[in-house]
Write a structure and sequence with these properties.
single chain; two-stranded antiparallel sheet; about 170 residues; alpha+beta; Alpha-Beta Plaits; about 20% helix; 2 domains; globular
């Protein structure tokens, strides 16, 4: 299964991944239509500052595009009382028709990747995008101008040893 990986050394916090995600999930799937009609489009990824000083923003930290990690086992799936959160082919998905808005999944997620709206919202791995159209599999990866965000196959070793966190053996 592929996972989305963000290289903090390359992320410039431009939020292009958020915009691409919001447009991909808008009914029109067009940024011009979203802007001109005022259609509400909610991104399922967020760019967050990690490790920064609260007194000196943008100093000593990195920006990361964060979203659902599609964990296995997934804490949000275990916590969901309605069965809305479930696993499908390795991905953790939310059936918004079944979601009752209890936010147990929001509280259970260790990555803060589930957003409470009227129903739970999270990364769904762009199920309606097809590689057959010549586009990247994920809207956020395609939009990243620095290639900080990319899809990595988890069954294979990481593309390089540079991706391994310092002091951690994988």
């Amino acid at each position: 299964m592929e996972r989305l990986y963000c290289d903090g050394r390359l992320c410039v916090a431009c939020h292009a991944c958020e915009v691409a995600c919001a447009v991909e999930h808008a009914s029109s799937r067009s940024i011009l239509s979203v802007i001109s009609t005022g259609e509400f489009a909610f991104p399922r990824r967020s760019v967050q500052a990690v490790g920064q000083s609260p007194y000196r923003p943008r100093v000593g930290g990195v920006a990361l595009s964060l979203g659902c990690q599609h964990c296995s086992p997934a804490a949000c799936v275990d916590a969901c009382i309605s069965g809305a959160m479930h696993k499908e082919e390795g991905a953790t998905v939310c059936d918004t028709e079944k979601c009752v808005g209890c936010w147990m999944c929001v509280m259970a997620c260790p990555f803060d990747a589930v957003t409470p709206q009227k129903t739970a919202w999270k990364c769904d791995l762009c199920p309606n995008r097809s590689e057959l159209t010549g586009r990247a599999r994920y809207a956020c990866v395609e939009a990243c101008p620095t290639e900080a965000l990319r899809a990595v196959n988890c069954e294979l070793p990481a593309p390089s040893s540079e991706l391994q966190a310092p002091r951690f053996d994988l």
